[in-house]
């Protein structure tokens, strides 16, 4: 029987390591770079071993990789078909920004790693991520990660906002068709591989320092609990893209939950839904639990403001833009102005202005 070639040997070793079946001595030789395989395959083995449950082996693999020059690793990244798990581990083991730049540009980058780079990368890494709009469309969560990055530049923040606006305004009309044709298989994920490592007791390098961002939408969690509807709990486990689709096509009850999402795209998708009616807009405009962004969007829509109850709800909401609310007051009836002048729940500026208008109307 012919011996396995080096590539197949490396593949089987990596598979065996992930399954916890490779003897320690073999893993140690690989960590030290002493196996008779190509340099590139050694990199791959050492990256997987950097998460080995044996601390000595993991440290040895990390030390070996630390001795490799940045340029050699960058050239390898750009010329090899590297697995998403290996890219993730390389980003954790070698934190130089020039290496992160090469990783961010790799087509095989996993969603989890992309989000980690967005949350921790410098301005150049951020720019690479936001510039690749096709990639962002496949992982919309990365927009929030960029905004959360403490190093985020104003240029990147502006481009994130522009992307969000264009997404809602120009893509919403074709959203259903686009999302249905873009199946979950198109998402590049390393979650399964990471779970395999954890299952054998592995410790992901720098997991505490470079955690994969976790999705938590406490706004809709609270609303689902308040509604006491377990059926709506499925909304919590949806991706941002799936929540947007539900916001556009779902039921009134689902929209009433998703309008409280912390994700701006999800909230804007609710307001862009062709199923949204004036009654819902009125409730959103008068809600104290929705974000200021929701009230601002409603206050900026003249079509909705032609519906008097919506206009009144905006003026009454303390989250409404003050200057806009003051301009809208001229359309209110005497009765509603009088009620506003005594309502301590509205913005004090609105209450004083309403009182002034009422006094003038009585003269």
Structure explained in plain terms:
- With 363 residues, the chain is mainly alpha-helical.
- The chain folds into three domains: 6-199; 215-276, no CATH class; 277-363.
- 65% of the residues lie in helices and 0% in strands.
- The protein has 25 helices and no strands.
- The protein has helices at 6-18, 24-32, 39-49, 55-66, 70-79, 84-93, 97-104, 111-120, 123-131, 133-138, 141-148, 154-171, 175-181, 191-199, 218-227, 240-249, 252-258, 264-272, 278-286, 292-299, 302-305, 308-316, 322-328, 334-342, 348-362.
- α8 (111-120) runs parallel beside α11 and α19 runs parallel beside α22.
- The model is unreliable at 1-7 (pLDDT under 50).
Mean pLDDT rating: 87
Helix content: 55-70%
Number of strands: 0
Low-confidence stretches: 1-7
- How many angstroms separate the termini? 106 Å
User: In one word, what is the shape?
Assistant: elongated
Kindly give the count of domains: 3
Taking all Cα atoms into account, the compactness measure Rg is 27 Å
Largest sheet: none
- Report the portion of residues in β strands: under 5%
Q: Please count the helical segments.
A: 25
Order of helices and strands: HHHHHHHHHHHHHHHHHHHHHHHHH
Overall structural class, as computed from helix and strand content, comes to mainly alpha
């Amino acid at each position: 029987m012919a011996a396995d070639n080096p590539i197949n040997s490396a593949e089987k070793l990596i598979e065996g390591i992930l399954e916890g079946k490779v003897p320690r001595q073999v893993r140690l030789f690989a960590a030290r770079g002493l196996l008779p395989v190509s340099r590139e395959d050694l990199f791959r083995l050492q990256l997987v071993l950097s998460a080995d449950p044996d601390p000595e082996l993991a440290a040895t693999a990390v030390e070996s990789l630390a001795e490799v020059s940045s340029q050699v690793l960058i050239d390898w990244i750009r010329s090899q078909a590297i697995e998403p798990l290996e890219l993730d581990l390389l980003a954790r083991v070698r934190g130089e920004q020039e290496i992160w730049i090469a990783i961010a540009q790799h087509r095989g980058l996993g969603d989890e790693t992309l989000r980690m780079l967005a949350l921790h990368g410098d301005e150049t890494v951020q720019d690479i991520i936001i510039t690749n709009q096709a990639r962002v469309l496949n992982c919309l969560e990365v927009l929030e990660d960029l905004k959360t990055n403490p190093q985020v530049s104003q240029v990147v923040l502006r481009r994130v906002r522009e992307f969000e606006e264009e997404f809602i305004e120009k893509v919403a009309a074709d959203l259903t068709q686009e999302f249905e044709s873009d199946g979950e298989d198109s998402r590049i994920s390393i979650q399964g591989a990471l779970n395999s490592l954890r299952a054998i007791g592995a410790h992901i390098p720098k997991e505490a320092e470079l955690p994969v961002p976790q999705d938590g939408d406490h706004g809709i969690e609270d609303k689902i609990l308040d509604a006491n509807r377990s059926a709506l709990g499925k909304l919590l486990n949806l991706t941002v893209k799936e929540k947007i689709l539900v916001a556009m096509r779902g039921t009134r009850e689902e929209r009433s939950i998703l309008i409280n999402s912390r994700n701006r795209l999800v909230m804007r998708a609710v307001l862009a839904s062709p199923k949204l009616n004036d009654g819902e807009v009125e409730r959103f405009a008068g809600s104290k639990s929705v974000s200021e962004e929701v009230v601002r969007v409603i206050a900026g829509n003249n079509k909705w403001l032609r519906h008097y109850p919506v206009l009144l709800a905006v003026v009454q909401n303390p989250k409404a833009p003050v200057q806009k609310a003051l301009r809208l007051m001229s359309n209110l009836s005497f009765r509603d102005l009088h009620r506003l002048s005594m309502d301590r729940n509205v913005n004090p500026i609105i209450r004083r202005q309403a009182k002034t208008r009422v006094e003038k109307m009585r003269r």
